Amino acid sequence: MKPYLQEAIWKCQQSGIGVMPEVVDAMEKVDRKLFVPSHEKKRAEMDHAVPILSGQTTSAPHMILMMLCAATIRKGEKVLEVGTGSGYNTAILSILVGNEGKVVSIERIRDLIDFAKQNLSKIKLPNNYEIVFGDGTEGLKEQKFDKIIVTAAGPFIPAPLCWQLKDGGIMIIPVQDGYFQTLLKVRRLNSGEMNRGAYEKYLEANVKYPSIEIEELMAVQFVKLVGKHGFES
Ligand code: SAM
User: Fold this and answer.
1) Active-site hit among 15, 54, 59, 121
2) What pTM was computed for the model?
């Protein structure tokens, strides 16, 4: 097993998030070196975030492992990723959900769309993913997802993404919390009133949210989520 993956597993265990063997298997199948610029290949073999293009990074493997395990991604699910970046996480998601599943990944920087598509074309993946240019804080109207993975931190949880979760669906998202960022697990509830008071600091003011439950997972560090329901560019 790749040394960075062993380190990622250890960190995931320490965090209290259960390690899913299927996520580890999918990560083993994707060569991270193919998803970084040529001068960063050495760093891609370590459990570190790696700079890609346009001032963005591809997250550290342990963070990807923790997010995908916390989301309990399973075969056949429909997953939205906000922040395609290098396409590395998209490749892992594509393997995880398999032929019966679907992955849609949104990115707001055009150069990264091209970069991710090139990287993804280097490996054999199920024909189940789509890379879309746009503002991921608005999600994809008219679509519903089992899981949403947001790979950049905004000032609050974008309400449109909550509405696009299926009942019982889970979103993993980092949110700015004062000087820090907190990784949140958001679950859409089938029914019942939302107690906005308890979650106020994670919600956009004067915006209607569906009924959700929020769990704080850990302190994290991500690049900024920029968009209509994120930070200004
Ligand atoms: N998942 C990526 C990977 O595996 O390489 C890493 C993503 S990087 C940590 C975060 C990405 O989110 C950046 O590429 C950034 O351009 C993108 N991003 C920021 N705000 C966004 C938005 N509103 N919509 C879509 N992408 C956004």
Assistant:
1) 59
2) 0.97
